[in-house]
């Protein structure tokens, strides 16, 4: 039984790695090499697949119990998270048009830095001084990698940094907005509600900002039917990333996922260099290595802080949604 359990866990991890790296490389191929220069439409395809496949997995296959939205305020909170999530994914896809995957991953590794910044700005939560020190090599590594990146593109770099910051903001907001026991959703149910809201945001954005994208996609499909299969496979992979992320966490631990995530970035860099043959300088690789080293130190410092209770206790609640809850309760009382 133990052997079967280990094999199952290994299979999940391999699937998680394959889907994560696969969707990243296929995004790069479509947006840069293939010439499908429509990141908003591509993200909308991802979210549409996540909507459909999430419903099938939860409502039909019963992979997890379905959790319902209990109030208008909870729906507003999920909508806010969905908007930030859309923003991060679209910006990340835009950056792939201009940056090599290796450099994209180096910048993306700075997520802990932005998470710490937003956590402090929005909740006044102070980390231990050791935690902040570990963020120094994270940022320094990216600065070094930027200076040594042969294919550096300023606009792509700005988009990538913005995507990383938005990803961190979504993580902090999720902890703040869905903090009460009655509102917490597991990641699969959260995706079930966030994905269709994201499609509602992305559809008008794609039609306005990527003019005639549907007609262009159909014209491309007539010339080369493979684009349809690329989009379908890529969209399914985007959902599979979320599914395997949930399953790996469930059958191992969040700490294991964090360690695997650090290694995944390095694997993605190596695979992308082998596939796309993008030039990489020694300086760039040293910078990326320093960033990953800083991320590992950051994770270790956070773990020690949690076990030793070093964290500062000052915290300010994000009161806007609590005010909405109070207003909604007042309306309900007046109506009754």
List the helices and strands and how they pair.
Layout: H1 2-33, H2 39-60, H3 72-98, H4 101-108, H5 111-123, H6 129-147, H7 154-177, H8 187-209, H9 213-223, H10 226-251, H11 254-276, H12 282-308, H13 320-335
Biggest pleated sheet: none
Given as residue ranges, the uncertain stretches (5+ residues, pLDDT < 50) are: 310-325, 331-336
Structural class: mainly alpha
* Euclidean distance between termini CA atoms: 57 Å
Spell out the helices and strands N to C: HHHHHHHHHHHHH
Strand content: under 5%
Indicate the percent of residues in helices: over 70%
Shape: globular
What's the pLDDT, averaged over the residues?
A: 84
Number of domains: 1
The helix tally amounts to 13
The tally of strands reads 0
What can you tell me about this protein's structure?
By secondary structure, the protein is mostly helical. The protein has helices at 2-33, 39-60, 72-98, 101-108, 111-123, 129-147, 154-177, 187-209, 213-223, 226-251, 254-276, 282-308, 320-335. Mean pLDDT is 84; it is low at 310-325 and 331-336. Helix 5 crosses helix 7 (154-177). It contains 13 helices and no strands. The protein has one domain (12-331).
């Amino acid at each position: 039984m133990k052997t079967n359990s280990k094999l199952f866990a290994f299979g999940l991890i391999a699937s998680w790695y394959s889907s994560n790296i696969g969707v990243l490389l296929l995004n790069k191929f479509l947006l840069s090499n293939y010439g499908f220069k429509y990141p908003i439409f591509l993200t909308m395809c991802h979210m549409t697949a996540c909507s459909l496949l999430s419903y099938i997995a939860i409502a039909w296959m019963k992979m997890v119990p379905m959790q319902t939205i209990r109030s208008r305020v909870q729906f507003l909170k999920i909508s806010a998270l969905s908007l930030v999530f859309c923003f991060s994914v679209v910006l990340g896809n835009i950056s792939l048009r201009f940056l090599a995957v290796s450099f994209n991953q180096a910048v993306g590794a700075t997520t802990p830095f932005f998470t710490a910044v937003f956590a402090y700005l929005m909740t006044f939560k102070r980390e231990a001084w050791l935690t902040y020190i570990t963020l120094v090599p994270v940022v320094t590594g990216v600065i070094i990698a930027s200076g040594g990146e042969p294919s550096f593109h300023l606009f792509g770099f700005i988009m990538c940094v913005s995507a990383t910051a938005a990803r961190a903001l979504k993580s902090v907001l999720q902890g703040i907005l869905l903090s009460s026991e009655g509102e917490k959703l597991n990641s699969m149910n959260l995706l079930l509600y966030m994905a269709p809201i994201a499609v509602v945001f992305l559809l008008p954005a794609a039609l306005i900002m990527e003019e005639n994208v549907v007609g262009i996609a159909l014209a491309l499909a007539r010339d080369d039917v493979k684009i349809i299969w690329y989009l379908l496979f890529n969209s399914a992979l985007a959902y599979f990333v979320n599914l395997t992320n949930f399953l790996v966490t469930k059958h191992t631990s969040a700490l294991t996922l964090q360690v695997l995530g650090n290694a995944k970035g390095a694997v993605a860099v190596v695979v992308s260099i082998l596939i796309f043959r993008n030039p990489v300088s020694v300086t760039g690789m040293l910078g990326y290595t320093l960033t990953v080293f800083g991320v590992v130190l950051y994770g270790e410092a956070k773990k020690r802080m949690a076990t030793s209770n070093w964290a500062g206790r000052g915290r300010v609640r994000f009161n806007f949604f609590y005010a909405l809850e109070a207003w909604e309760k007042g309306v309900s009382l007046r109506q009754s």
